[in-house]
Amino acid sequence: MVSFVTWNLYAGADLTPLFRAAPPQIPQRVTEVFRQFLATHFSVRAKAIASAIAEKRPDVIGFQEVSLVQFTIPNVDVVIYDFLQMVVSQLKNRGLHYEVAVINDNVLFQLPTSHGNEVRMLDRDVILLRKDSGYKVIHRQKGIFTTNFTVRIGRGSCTILRGWSFVDIEGKKALRVINTHLDSYSPGVQVAQGMELLSGPAHTTLPLILLGDLNSNATGSDTPTYGNFIASGLHDLWLEVGKGQGFTCCQDSDLLNGVSGLHQRIDYILFKNGWTPGEALLLGENQWSRRERGLWPSDHAGVYGSLRI
Q1: Under a CB-based contact definition with an 8 Å cutoff, are residues 58 and 299 in contact?
Q2: Is 203 exposed, middle or buried (0-12, 13-18, 19+ CB in 10 A)?
């Protein structure tokens, strides 16, 4: 068996107020967004995420929204919140040693606060490989989609860059693992990104696993992207062996909602080319996951799955 996890870690704050603000309002909105980021305590959430993952010891992890946040204070060294370093460290504390197989950098925001500071936030997606999994990386590649959504921020504009990455790994057999996070703002952009993925890295004869937040509901009620992936020959692990509805999105932006708000299934482990499904289950979706400070680990649940080649 080979085991996988996909999990959108959540950047820690709702960024949409920045897109709706008039230029003079931007510094105040940045301050409000940063305060929410601090209040969702990734240092706390990383422990819950690592604990859930440690119970299953997946061979490969695909993370999305692995933020790198820099808070610049005048005449003081930059304060850095590195989600990747924090979660890998928590996994290590639980006896799990992962190597970073590939990182792709997506959109970068750099904006002033109302207090004379500056916030810089880089969105990243990451694939981790457990060091004692018996697999080694033989090839890796990453890229930014050619079609991306552009939004106005203040007097300027920002293109919400999204990307993909993959690793070919080899143990007893070689296989390819793709990780991605598709656009959530424009159905047309999202469909184009999905088709680019299918005609690019997913176009392979290797046993393939596709991990990610596709932002496309499995019911087909919002965008056709999920349906396009299934029509291409990919299979949905949750449909094969998952129990229940498997909702993965979304908790409130402050992560403090008392009752789970998960009501959509948009995070997937998809596969093709010679796999036999084992099991599929959710991570971080129950009340027990909120045991410290009452925060949900993320606004998304993680998905764990195992398959045999």
Answers
A1: no
A2: exposed
Listed by start position, the domains of the chain span 2-298
Neighbours of 219 (CB within 10 A): 11
Rounded Cα distance between 254 and 245, Å, is 24
Radius of gyration of the chain from Cα atoms? Answer: 19
Assign 200 a pLDDT band (cuts: 50, 70, 90).
Answer: very high
Domain 2-298: which CATH number of 3.30.830.10, 3.60.10.10, 3.40.50.10190, 3.40.50.880: 3.60.10.10
Query: In this structure, what token pair is assigned to residue 172?
Result: 């007893």
Nearest to 160, CA basis, from 132, 206, 122: 122
pTM for this predicted structure: 0.96
Whether the Cβ atoms of residue 196 and residue 182 lie closer than 8 Å to each other? no
Tokens standing for residue 257: 């909602």
* Mean pLDDT of the chain, nearest integer: 96
Per-residue pLDDT, 128 = 98
Give dist(CA 190, CA 149) in Å, integer: 9
Nearest one of 31, 33, 32 to 11, comparing CA atoms: 33
**Per-residue model confidence (pLDDT) at position 5:** 98
